Structure to design on (593 residues):
């Protein structure tokens, strides 16, 4: 394969995002012989620090500096990249809130193919890049074929590729700022509103009873609350419960919610999408309760219980209370 | 404000367990219950709320076949003023870019100030809105979880970013926004409303009416194709506890005690 591969590097506070080395790993899977080029946009000392850091793993780092790129506005960045990236290239972008903004439009302007949320690369076959995606919250996977003969933008799932440290080190930084020119956008960043902290801080709790769509109704939350009380735990949840306004956002575990690191995590009626699992850190002991034996949560849980949580949780609550009473009376 | 909402009919995962078919190359599609994609329904609700405050109309469009018309009727029962079914043999097998190309044809026929899509379908790629915006040279914002109208020409939109934080932006109209679930509480649609919507006229547009070159859409133009579905070999997987609920609860308590979760 002859296409040049670029990795768009997100960064914050002068430090490259974890995805920087994951994208390098994805590039190696696409073409083991290719040396991917890092492309970084931003401004000032922070941008220079990121470029300097990337030299350790990327042989070539393309820097696009502009005061208008100080905050990562996808529309401005797209315009800059379109001017700088050669036709026919493969551009790798992390599939997060920024990549979802950037990737699809970038592919249109580069007249390239687009595949989102790629979690595996099977290789290249003729003009096709063969990749793996998931659908339906990870219940099924798909093999996808993408014609890359006129280039491609591939959004790569964070955490899906094991980061590799490039051997070369002491790469070169190439300043492409002049090629990008003046930039303006129809969307302007105003401010970031930091999440409100709720009545309890789920990020500090050692035991979480977490509920998902399987709780079915708001009234059923009592079942989870009773179990949490018996265990001395608190109730957290997955996205659908917050969408339904049954629990506040501060109780949500996941990439768009809180990152938690409990010792024990009881996932009740939670299917286990990667966005949810991204919020679980520190290798907790995961107990999954789900009616559907094929729910993806069973792949990552330590212990699984195939049952209706509305029946199982009250039983467990009773047993926990009994166990505590026995302990107290000893 | 004239608002277009692009919607899709998808397998309803709250009504079906998605699984592989016997041949192991597709999901089992017999007896699947379909409904409007969840995020698209939030987008329609948001459009209705904007129009209730600022005036205008809401049009709901989908690319599909006669079968997909039911979601347009459902959203019209919810309050959308018009539906549009974008249907043509030439559209069959389109990838994300093909779908965006078809929708662009509809946008260019009308005078829409605001175009909404759901952020993602469960079998989709969170891509059509961003592509459509780029094709139209309209500004775009994804993962939108709040919208405030600022006069005739601008909106203030919030985007969901990491850690439950919210990125606030000002965006010029016309623009395309992809709507995140949870932005509002979609209104309930009763059976009566859906029955009443059955008699409404829904116009159908083909490639010719939309001014689309048939070669730019459909399977032949699709650069991205799904070869098959599969279920990956499990990793270690969970130890599944067997027995009655009572027995399982006993075992689980022992395990949790060992892990220090129960004193």
């Amino acid at each position: 394969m002859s296409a040049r591969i670029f990795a768009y590097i997100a960064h914050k506070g002068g430090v490259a995002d974890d995805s920087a080395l994951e994208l390098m790993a994805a590039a190696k899977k696409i073409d083991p012989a290719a040396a991917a080029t890092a492309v970084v946009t931003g401004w000032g000392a922070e941008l220079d620090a990121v470029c300097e850091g990337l030299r350790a793993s990327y042989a070539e780092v393309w820097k696009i500096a502009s005061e208008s790129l100080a905050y990562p506005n996808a529309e401005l960045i797209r315009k800059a990249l379109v001017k700088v990236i050669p036709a026919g290239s493969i551009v790798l972008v992390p599939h997060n809130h920024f990549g979802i903004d950037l990737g699809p439009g970038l592919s249109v302007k580069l007249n390239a193919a687009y595949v989102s949320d790629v979690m595996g690369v099977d290789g290249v076959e003729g003009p096709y890049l063969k990749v793996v995606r998931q659908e339906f919250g990870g219940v099924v996977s798909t093999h996808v074929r993408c014609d890359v003969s006129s280039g491609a933008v591939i959004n790569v799932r964070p955490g899906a590729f094991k980061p590799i440290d490039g051997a070369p080190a002491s790469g070169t930084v190439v300043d492409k700022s002049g090629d990008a020119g003046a930039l303006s956008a129809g969307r302007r960043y105003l401010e970031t509103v930091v999440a409100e902290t709720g009545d309890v801080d789920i990020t500090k709790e050692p035991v979480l009873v977490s509920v998902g769509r399987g709780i079915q109704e708001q009234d059923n939350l009592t079942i989870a609350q009773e179990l949490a009380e018996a265990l001395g735990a608190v109730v957290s949840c997955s996205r659908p419960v917050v969408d339904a306004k049954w629990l506040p956002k501060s109780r949500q575990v996941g990439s768009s919610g809180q990152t938690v690191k409990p010792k024990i995590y009881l996932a009740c009626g939670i299917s286990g999408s990667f966005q949810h699992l991204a919020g679980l850190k520190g290798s907790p002991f995961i107990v999954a309760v789900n009616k559907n034996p094929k729910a993806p949560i069973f792949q990552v849980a330590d212990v699984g219980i195939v049952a209706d949580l509305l029946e199982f949780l009250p039983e467990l609550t009773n047993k926990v209370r009994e166990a505590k009473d026995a302990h107290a009376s000893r | 404000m004239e608002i277009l909402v692009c919607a899709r009919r998808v397998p309803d995962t709250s009504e079906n367990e998605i699984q592989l078919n016997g041949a192991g190359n597709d999901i089992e599609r017999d007896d699947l219950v379909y409904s409007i994609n969840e995020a698209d329904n939030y987008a329609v609700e948001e459009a209705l709320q904007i129009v209730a405050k600022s005036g205008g109309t809401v049009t709901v469009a989908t690319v599909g076949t006669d079968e997909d018309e039911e979601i347009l009727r459902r959203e019209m029962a919810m309050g959308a003023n018009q539906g549009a079914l974008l249907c043509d043999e030439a559209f069959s097998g389109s990838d994300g870019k093909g779908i965006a190309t078809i929708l662009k044809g509809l946008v260019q026929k009308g005078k829409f100030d605001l175009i909404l899509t759901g952020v993602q379908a469960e079998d989709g790629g969170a891509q059509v809105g961003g592509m459509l915006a780029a094709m139209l040279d309209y500004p775009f914002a994804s993962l939108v979880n709040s919208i405030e109208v600022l006069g005739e020409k601008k909106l203030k939109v919030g985007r969901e970013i990491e850690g439950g934080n919210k990125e606030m932006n000002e965006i010029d109209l016309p623009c395309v926004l992809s709507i995140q679930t949870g932005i509002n509480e979609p209104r309930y649609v009763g059976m009566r409303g859906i029955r009443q919507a059955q008699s409404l006229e829904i116009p159908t547009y083909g490639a010719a009416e939309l001014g689309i070159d048939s070669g730019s859409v459909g399977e032949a133009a699709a650069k991205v194709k799904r070869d098959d579905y599969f279920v990956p070999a499990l990793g270690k997987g969970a130890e599944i506890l067997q027995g009655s609920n009572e027995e399982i609860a006993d075992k689980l308590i022992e395990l949790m005690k060992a892990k220090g979760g129960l004193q």
